[in-house]
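A reminder from the course coordinator: this example appears on the midterm review sheet, so study it carefully.

Given structure:
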């Protein structure tokens, strides 16, 4: 498979990964709001987890890491 000659040629793959990432984040953020009393309160100073200890929360940095690896995989291997 020939490799694209410019970074712009990789944008469709990067956009696919970004769209999946945003969809996944939206689902994770909406989940605590859908469950009354789930404890998903975030005061913006909780270390980025979005969790006050009473709910499931999620690790934003792990999500960003997964996104980064998905982009690298898409660009490198298609």
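Designed residues:
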């Amino acid at each position: 498979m020939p490799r694209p000659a410019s970074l712009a040629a990789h944008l469709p793959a990067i956009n696919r990964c970004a769209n999946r990432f945003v969809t996944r984040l939206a689902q994770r953020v909406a989940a605590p709001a859908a469950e009354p009393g789930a404890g998903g309160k975030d005061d913006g100073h909780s270390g980025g987890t979005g969790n006050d200890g009473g709910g499931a929360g999620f690790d934003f940095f792990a999500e960003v890491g997964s996104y980064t690896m998905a982009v690298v995989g898409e660009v490198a291997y298609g």
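Confidence is low (pLDDT under 50) at residues 43-47, 49-54. DSSP finds two helices and no strands in the chain.
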